[in-house]
Amino acid sequence: MAKSTLHSVVLSAEEREWLTRVVRTGAHPAQEVRRSRILLELDDSRGQPASRREIAGRVGVDPETISNVAKVYVERDGDVVATIQRKKRLTPPVEPKITGEVEARLIALACSTPPPGHARACQMGCVTRSSSAEEYTVVRDRRSPAGASPRC
Question: pTM score, two decimals?
Answer without folding.
Answer: 0.58
